[in-house]
């Protein structure tokens, strides 16, 4: 039976080529993703900064207190401890910022000289830094800037520029590829980081004879009292885990993202393959009918087609697996841009991904075959007596009724959203919007062939007037036999509409996030550190506040904290919370809805909390809360004197920065500085890596950041759309391949080759253009549904329609359809001319 399958394919080369191309494209996409996933599963963050120490106690934000350092140092298994401070420090030489290719962070990392042995670093030239204004640079920085001992440089930390003198050049004793280092005198480091006494990491050396595992167990036991449920920010790392504690190369949680990409690609590919195989079976309907007429049983037909699919899959994988290996590094670059893999990620090649690609392709082909074989078994033996099996020119009513039902459901939900049946603040609103989008996309995918049919009837007079032969015949073909184009129309509609709706929804949420950010903003300007920096200094805030025309300058920063109600047992797994530490009158910067005393009047032992935290713990004005900050063994008691409405710019708690001034945590560094009055950019040095925004500019930047953080789904939708585009163009071209007799008959009736080509071009346009209009209308519909859910959203409805995405994808679809159709017709005409000769 397999031999018979190949014999039938011999007379339908278009079906064979179309199915094979579809399988190759699908297997290449799956294979390239699988090679990346396989390499990610085995990838480890390289250890650079802490390569010279067997164990590291790591955290962020200086949470390792002097008490914890003393507790670890007192362990009998420990020979020595090395506290480490790590902070971004911009370096400029001769007025030019120094950048080293390959660094993960745009800026070098600053450290105290006493922690140089953690790598270890050794002086190659010069001496260690001993005083304020002296710095040792690593060899990579010295080579990049062509500087040496005695050169004057500028160091930028927390928005403040300080002159320094290079007194030494140090070289790493191990691999040093993804970061650069600056070393300062230990006493000077405290000034640079705002007086913070807490360390960012703690290197631990064991006593002779103590193994790494025994050391890890002992140190973990000493660290445990400084961690608490809901605030486990201190970790103990050995081996490859030390690399993640460097906080330079992040180890993203991208594994699930890539698996999602594999599965969504496989799902869409299965649909593509099923469509291609179904079309191949329909084109061989006569041969299959003959086999049924001469006694072939349904089981034999099924085995014949399944074997055919398996053989095609093996041939496709022989081509696709090498292509997937070549494409995998390109895919890895895109995932690196998305933050799904680290900068150190490298694709590795093993036999396993190739074998899994083969197995996956066989599974996709088998599933697609099982879907398509049902069509073959519906072919009656009596169809062999006709020219072609009776398939009908019209689509079934079941598809139409299903599409109309889904459209009615989407319309009903849209009406509920437009009339605000569900309040805008209700948690179920987002779910309702998602369901509406899904129903609308599915509905237009099912109804698209009828839209093309109606559009053909509407434009018939105009096209007939424009092209009396080619246009007239094209409209007649699309209207009379629109089932012929149903597969291409449905695939293209689904792909383009999905991109439009997903990208439009993302634009809306970008706008909403930015709008929420500035909703409560009273400040005229916002300052924040540029990329690579991490904070702004209190010195900068005071300088801005002293500037003429400035009425307020408020600095804020955030810090994680564990919360419990005094007198109640601590929950086993409490949710994480954060507190906003502010310096200045925060009510001058943010318009907070407050019950109780203004936050500026908070005294010692008093705290402000938002309404969500108050509701969770049943707290009110006068309630006593126990707050525990990172690296503190015991919590402190605070009285709630203020409750404010949740706001995007502040966390769940508000505390004046002076509340932690007596701890090991800093109180003189800020994440943002809000300014009312004069433009602070007049006094901020352009070289200090401080970004200054007006209120409108700040809103736009927040929108851009949200888009960058959530760009994965729009690109996944584009991937799905490209698959759908390939399937649609493939379907259109294969339809033309099977119309060779029709074209030959037209030529015998006197039509010129140009008229035939114009006819197929009109057919492509009549198929693609209505789809683009339908997709645009659906996208606009969904944009309107989203816009009405937010105050002021209707004014920006047009901005939520991704015209650029739709134009690029729609234009590409039209050009691909025209090019494919012309190519197929040219080949058919050449064969016809050779036959006549």
Automatic annotation (TrEMBL):
The chain crosses the membrane at residues 16-37, 258-277, 310-333, 353-371, 400-419, 431-455, 485-509, 712-738, 759-785, 805-825. Keywords: Cell membrane, Membrane, Transmembrane, Transmembrane helix. InterPro entries: ABC3_permease_C, MacB_PCD, Macrolide_Exporter_MacB. GO terms for molecular function: transmembrane transporter activity. It is a multi-pass membrane protein. Residues 26-177 form the MacB-like periplasmic core domain. The keyword Transcription regulation does not apply. GO terms for cellular component: plasma membrane. It is found in: Cell membrane. It comes from the Bacteria. Residues 260-380, 716-827 form the ABC3 transporter permease C-terminal domain. Pfam families: FtsX, MacB_PCD. Belongs to the ABC-4 integral membrane protein family. This is Putative ABC transport system permease protein.
């Amino acid at each position: 039976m397999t031999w018979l399958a190949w014999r039938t394919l011999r007379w339908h080369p278009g079906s064979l080529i179309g199915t094979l191309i579809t399988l190759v494209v699908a297997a290449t996409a799956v294979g390239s993703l699988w090679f990346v996933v396989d390499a990610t599963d085995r990838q480890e963050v390289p250890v650079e900064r802490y390569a010279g120490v067997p164990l590291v106690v790591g955290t962020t934000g200086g949470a390792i207190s002097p008490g914890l350092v003393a507790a670890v140092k007192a362990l009998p298994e420990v020979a020595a401890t090395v506290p480490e401070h790590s902070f971004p420090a911009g370096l400029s030489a001769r007025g030019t910022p120094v950048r080293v290719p390959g660094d993960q962070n745009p800026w070098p990392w600053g450290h105290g000289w006493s922690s140089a042995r953690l790598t270890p670093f050794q002086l190659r030239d010069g001496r260690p830094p001993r005083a304020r204004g002296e710095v040792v640079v690593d060899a990579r920085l010295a080579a990049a800037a062509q500087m040496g001992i005695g050169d004057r440089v500028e160091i930028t930390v927390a928005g403040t520029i300080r002159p320094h003198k290079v007194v030494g050049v140090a070289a790493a004793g191990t691999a040093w590829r993804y970061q650069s280092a600056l070393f300062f005198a230990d006493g000077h480091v405290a000034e640079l980081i705002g007086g913070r006494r807490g360390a960012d990491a703690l290197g631990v050396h064991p006593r002779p004879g103590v193994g790494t595992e025994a050391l890890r167990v002992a140190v973990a036991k000493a660290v445990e009292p400084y961690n608490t449920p809901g605030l486990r920010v201190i970790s103990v790392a050995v081996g490859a885990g030390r690399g993640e504690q460097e906080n330079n190369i992040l180890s993203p949680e991208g594994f699930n993202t890539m698996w999602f990409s594999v599965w969504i690609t496989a799902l869409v590919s299965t649909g593509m393959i099923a469509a291609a195989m179904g079309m191949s079976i329909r084109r061989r309907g006569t041969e299959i009918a003959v086999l049924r007429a001469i006694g072939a049983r349904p089981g034999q037909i099924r085995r014949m087609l399944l074997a055919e699919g398996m053989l095609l899959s093996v041939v496709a994988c022989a081509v696709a697996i090498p292509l997937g290996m070549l494409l995998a590094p390109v895919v890895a670059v895109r995932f690196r841009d998305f933050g799904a893999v680290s900068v150190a990620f490298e694709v590795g090649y093993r036999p396993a991904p190739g074998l899994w690609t083969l197995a996956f392709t066989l599974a996709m082909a088998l599933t697609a075959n099982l879907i398509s074989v049902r069509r073959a078994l519906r072919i009656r033996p009596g169809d062999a007596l006709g020219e072609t099996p009776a398939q009908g020119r019209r689509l079934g009513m079941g598809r139409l009724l299903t599409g109309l039902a889904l459209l009615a459901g989407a319309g009903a939900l849209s009406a509920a959203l437009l009339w605000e049946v569900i309040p805008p603040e209700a948690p179920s609103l987002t779910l309702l919007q998602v369901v509406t989008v899904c129903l609308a996309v599915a509905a237009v995918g099912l109804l698209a062939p009828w839209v093309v049919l109606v559009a053909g009837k509407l434009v018939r007079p105009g096209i007939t007037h424009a092209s009396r032969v080619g246009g007239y015949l094209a409209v007649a073909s699309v209207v009379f036999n629109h089932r012929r184009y149903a597969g291409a129309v449905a695939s293209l509609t689904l792909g383009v509409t999905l991109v439009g709706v997903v990208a439009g929804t993302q634009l809306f949420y970008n706008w909403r996030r930015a709008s929420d950010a500035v909703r409560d903003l009273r400040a005229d300007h916002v300052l924040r550190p540029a990329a690579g920096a991490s904070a702004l200094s209190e010195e900068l805030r005071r300088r801005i506040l002293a500037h003429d025309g400035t009425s307020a300058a408020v600095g804020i920063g955030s810090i994680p904290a564990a919360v419990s109600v005094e007198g109640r047992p601590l929950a086993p797994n409490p949710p994480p919370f954060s507190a906003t530490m502010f310096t200045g009158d925060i009510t001058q910067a943010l318009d907070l809805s407050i019950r109780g005393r203004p936050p500026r009047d908070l005294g010692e032992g008093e705290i402000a909390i938002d309404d969500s935290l108050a509701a969770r713990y049943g707290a009110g004005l006068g309630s006593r809360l126990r707050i525990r900050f990172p690296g503190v063994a015991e919590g402190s008691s605070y009285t709630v004197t203020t409750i404010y409405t949740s706001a995007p710019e502040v966390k769940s708690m508000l505390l004046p920065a002076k509340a932690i001034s007596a701890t090991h945590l800093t109180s003189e560094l800020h994440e943002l500085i809000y300014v009312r009055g004069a433009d602070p950019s007049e006094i901020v040095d352009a070289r200090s890596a401080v970004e200054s925004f007006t209120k409108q500019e700040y809103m736009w930047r927040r929108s851009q950041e949200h888009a960058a953080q959530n760009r994965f789904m729009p690109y996944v939708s584009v991937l799905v759309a490209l698959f759908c585009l390939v399937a649609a163009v493939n379907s259109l071209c294969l339809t033309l391949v099977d119309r060779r007799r029709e074209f030959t008959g037209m030529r015998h009736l006197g039509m010129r080759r140009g008229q035939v080509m114009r006819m197929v071009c009109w057919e492509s346009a009549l198929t693609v253009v209505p789809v683009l209009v339908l997709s645009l209308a659906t996208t606009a519909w969904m944009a309107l549904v989203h816009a009405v859910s937010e105050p002021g959203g209707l004014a920006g409805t047009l901005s939520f329609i991704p015209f650029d995405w739709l134009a690029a994808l729609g234009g590409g679809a039209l050009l691909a359809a025209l090019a494919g159709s012309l190519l197929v017709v040219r080949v058919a005409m050449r064969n016809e001319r050779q036959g006549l000769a």
